[in-house]
Amino acid sequence: MATLVEDNVVKTADHYGEATIVVEESTVVDPLRSAYYVEVAPIHSLAIEHGTQIIAMPLGADVVLKLVYQDKFGRSFAPGIEGIEASIDVSHPRVLRADLDYYNSTLTVRALELGSSNIHIFLTGKEYVFDLIRVHVTSVIEPVSPVFVHVGGTVQFRTSYNYSGASGQSVWGSEDPNIIE
Description:
Blueprint: E1 2-6, E2 9-12, E3 17-25, E4 32-40, E5 45-48, E6 56-58, E7 62-70, E8 86-90, E9 96-100, E10 106-111, E11 115-123, E12 126-138, E13 141-142, E14 158-159
Parallel strand pairs: 6-12
Antiparallel strand pairs: 1-2, 3-4, 5-7, 7-10, 8-11, 9-10, 11-12, 13-14
């Protein structure tokens, strides 16, 4: 079920179950023995940690999100496990790019163009184990709100993105022209 490949590395076989790994270290006085319980179980669920917090991303921004894999009891698998085969499907690849790290334990999202896109991440061969998030890529207005200005003063705003398909003119307006003209 599990074999010790090299120091500090355990490789599981293709069976589910439980095993105890005993590590014995020689010392001058007494040998030290440690036992570690290992359970080999299938992945039952996959979730993008804090995925709902990136509903809107500024253009050009990067965010790294942790992926959480759990067994049927909701226990999280250890980080840095090799062999988890996950895939990504981005509905609008011109809007954003999504990449997995080597261990498929983090998802890096980069906002490329204004718009919205879904990111669907799933286990390869087990597409029913998945998570899905929707991301909106927006321009950012600077300075960041709230802006404090004295009576009679002016402030210069700018957007962080100028969409090449637009006329180059933005329409700015005020909810209350008595306060802001």
